[in-house]
Amino acid sequence: MPSISRHPTSSEHEGTFMHALILAGGLSHERDVSIRSGRRVMEALRTTVDKVTMVDVDTELIPTLRHGDIDVVWPLVHGATGEDGSLQALLELVGVPFVGTASPSARVAWNKAVSKAVMARSGISTPDHVTLPQSLFREVGAEQVLDTVVARFGLPVVVKPVRGGSALGVSIVHDRGDLARAMVHCFAYGDTALVEKHIPGTEVAMSVLGTGDDARVLPAVETVTDGAYDYDARYNPGRVEYFAPARLTESQAAEAATTALAVHRSMDLRDLSRIDLILDETGVAQVIDINITPGMTETSLFPQAAEAAGLDLGRVYREVVDTAAARGATR
Questions:
Q1: What is the pLDDT of residues 112-132, one digit of tens each?
Q2: What is the DSSP-derived secondary structure letter of residue 236?
């Protein structure tokens, strides 16, 4: 299979020889970010893993998985195929150990409407919202639907695809005249929109390492943006000011950590996740997004959280692949 990059390495890490395969790229709108994430993880793993290979997702993937003498796979494909449970299901079919959440839970976390329902049953706060398919606007009349949305939630509201990542298709709408344009922008990335009440407050990202009772939360990372925290702001340096750890009071930090752990555990997420939330004006943590394959680029929030905790990324990532490999060995 043509590879994005290949780096056979050796290390002084104790234990048996390990070959880790990173999957990056794919065909989603987030392909470039995925490749950047893969390269950053590969660079860090080279310090602790004997052999690291990074390949794209293409027609040679299954033969590579079956015959590549691979100990563990780390899927870093962002977007639909990489995060909606599809790639995870394929890895489960082949029987190769992999980093991250199993396919059933990935499907739940990927769909924002479904994940909000799960959180509500678990008593986790998330902004009030409605899910609207594009077909409804044609059947009922777009302007009447939008007037009803404003009457229910007021303004501003946040419009986002019900399935998607990296803030693609997301708009914060302050004026009724901009709402139709925001819906059109959203539908360019999916056929169903989630409209939720905008919550003012402090936006933080909570990174979680581990699974179940062993999961632990890394320091919160606060993002302050000139404008929307959109795709450009996330991945092009200069538009966002980061605070790692976040500028939170002790009680705010505890609230954010407790909420992130509750999401990670209630969704049955594995190994690592990033829970994005807003601490509202009353101090309640409102969950706005769940990421089972958090970005690992030079501007991404998970690596910043690990570094804020004083952790070495190579060792953190080695811990992650060791856990996944051991889980596969017990199947």
A1: 999 999 999 999 999 999 999
A2: S
